[in-house]
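Reviewer has doubts. Consider these C-alpha cells.
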Amino acid sequence: MSFFYNIFISLMIFGMKIFSLFNDKAKKGVLGRKESLQKVKLGLPANDKVIWMHAASLGEYEQGLPVLEKLKEKFPTHKILITFFSPSGYENVVKKENIADVVCYLPFDKKAQIKEFVSHLNITLFFTVKYEYWYNLLEELKQKGTRIYVISALFYDTQSFFTSHGKWFVKQLQKNVDWFFHQTEMSYALAKSIGLTQSSVTGDTRFDRVKQLRNQDNHVEFIKDFIGRDKSVVFGSSWQAEEKVAEEVLLGTPYAKLIIAPHDLKRVQHLKQIFPNAIFYSTIKENEINFKSRVMIIDSIGLLSKLYSYADIAVVGGGFHHAGLHNILEAATFGVPVIFGNHYRKNPEADELIAADGGKSFENTGLAADFVMFLINNEEILSRMSENAKKFVAEKPESTTLIMQKILS
C-alpha cells in the first residue's frame, strides 16, 4: 500500500503543476514550496529546538493557534515553525504579525523531499490540526523520536479509514501518532472502532480562540458611524450566494445597513457591479462618509473578526457552495445569530449552534434572505437568538487547557 500511496503523491504533484499553469492560487503553492527548505535552513539553525504546527489552511491555523501560543509560553526558548498546504492559509498568515520564527509551505509528501526537509530540524514536538495527515512526513518524524499529536481531530464515517482499503492508513496512524485530541464524542468513537485508542475528547480549540476575540480591541474606524441607529448585517467571507442574500435583503427592507467582506478580494470588482452605490472601506476618509449608502464593501483584509462585534446578524459564507463553511464561531462569540447554507458536513459546530437556537441554515438564498429580514423586524426573537449564540460559545470547555495537561504529562 505504501507503493500506491507514493504513486498517488507523484500523480497529485504532477496534477498540481499542470493546474498551476492556469490557476494563480495553485501556482503560488507550487512556487512557494521551492523556497521552504531554504527558509528553514536560514531561520532554524540545527541546534535550535523546534515546535512545529502544520495546518492545511487558515481555518485549521486558527484552530491550532491557542495550543501553539500556550506551548510557546511553556517553552519560550523553543523556535516555532508553522507550515501550510494551502496558499490561502500561508498568504494570510505570512503577511501579518504571528508568533512563528518561520512560516512556509509544507513540501510535497515525497520521501526524499520530506527526509531532506526534516533532517535540518531539531523537532521536539509536532502537531497537525483536524485531519491533515501526510504519511511520509509522520513516518520521518517518528523515526527522529518526535512526539506527534493531532489537535481538534475530526473523524467521520466516509473517510478512507473506514473503507476496505483503509487498513494501511490506520496502521500508519497507530504507530506514528502519540495522541489524538478529538473535537467530538462521535469522532472519538469512530477512531476507537478502528483501533486508534490513543485518544481523548477535548473539544474544539476554535472555541478557545474565538473567546479571546471578545477581549481584544475590536474597534474598526468608521463602522459605528456608518451603521448609525439601523440594524447591521455582516456578510462574512461571502461567495456569490451570500451576496445574492445581501441583494434580496437590500431590496426587501429599508431598516438595515449591510457590510460585505468577500472571501476573496478578487470579488470586489464584481461587488461594484452588484452594489453600484456602495461605500468601499479603503476609500473612506473622515467626515466623507456617504450616510445615504446602505452597503459597505470591505476591500481590506484582517478586519472580519472585529466587524462581527458590530453586527446584529451575521451571514457566513461557504455553506451554499460545497466549498466549506467558513468560521461561524467568530460571529457567535459576540452574541450574533448566524445564518448560513446547509452544506457543512465537516462542521459539527454548525449543528450544535442550530440546536442551541443561535443560528440557522437554509437550502437556498431566498429562504435565508427572508429569515434575515424576519429577524430585523422581530426584536424579541433576534434578542433571544443573540443570547443563545453568546451562551453557546461561552459554555464550551477550555480545550487548550485539557490538551496542554495531556502534552505536559
Summary: The chain has two domains: 2-201, 217-394.
